[in-house]
Amino acid sequence: MSINILAIESSCDDTSAAVISDCNLRSNVIASQKVHEQYGGVVPELASRAHQQNIIPVIHEALKQANLKKEELNAIAFTRGPGLMGSLLVGTSFAKGFSQALNIPLIEVNHLQGHIMAHFIQEEGEEKKTPKFPFICLLVSGGNSQIVLVKSYKEMEIIGQTIDDAAGEAFDKCAKVMGLPYPGGPIIDKLAKEGNPKAFTFAKPQIPDYNYSFSGLKTSFLYLLRDNLKEDEKFIENNLNDLCASLQSTVVDILMSKLKKAVKDYGIKEVAVAGGVSANSALRAAFEDYSQRYKWNIYIPKFSYTTDNAAMVAIVGYFKYLDNDFCDISLPPFSKVTI
Questions:
Q1: Helix segments in the chain, DSSP class H
Q2: CATH number, domain with residue 121
Q3: Chain segment 262-310, per-residue pLDDT in tens
């Protein structure tokens, strides 16, 4: 008999539900919220209201696509945090109520662990290579930039992280300054393909150990625009592709230099990338390049697993189910970043 887990993800502005049977994904449904685009970022109150509207249809569709009745579920997994508290409360409350109604266990999942463990999701008809423990994972998104030593599915140690802005946040903020719509990261990636990555030089802050900083880069970028706009009011318009390419190249260089140091110091050549920024084409190309140059065994997620999704919550839920690692219904969600 397969172990069937329904997973719910509602940490930010995507409502998602997935069904996994053992390690095999049977459905992964995501409802995105377009309302935030006009505000240039996620509005927490609007996000939580949209989750309330979306959560029942999304779960219904996930069960339908999986061809599974709710009575066949063995447990409910949900994102407990980190994330926006209002959004998390919607998913958490539904998960608790559903588990009580079905009289099945409840499993809490850390959103960041989910991103890392997405590498272990299997799909029918596909033989997927998975990382060997221990491995090092670069976790990069709009809210997080971390280097994580992954010893097992439940034992992870942050060995480096940003001391200010995350990489994705830097992309979005620089995009906004250039007048590009939200989210800015994917647009910068697209425009960068037509630009010269060496056209402009930006600051690369020197931070100790394996930690990151992107606030200096962001300031450097802003000053370059300010100084050049004084001479040419169409500077951004005339140099948009080169600006995007140079910014993207700098961010990737910063990320990879610290990752390279960590891999060398720890002597671990099993290296993965995860999180929203792992969809960036330049970062993926850098991983391929480093794999060739330094003989790393690399693991790059499918694009569908880079953004927030319930499939990654489901795979953690499956491993926790095997360990009988269930949570009490009284456990509240949390917003603070942690692993």
A1: 44-66, 85-102, 111-117, 167-177, 184-192, 215-231, 235-266, 281-294, 310-322
A2: 3.30.420.40
A3: 999 999 999 999 999 999 999 999 999 999 999 999 999 999 999 899 9
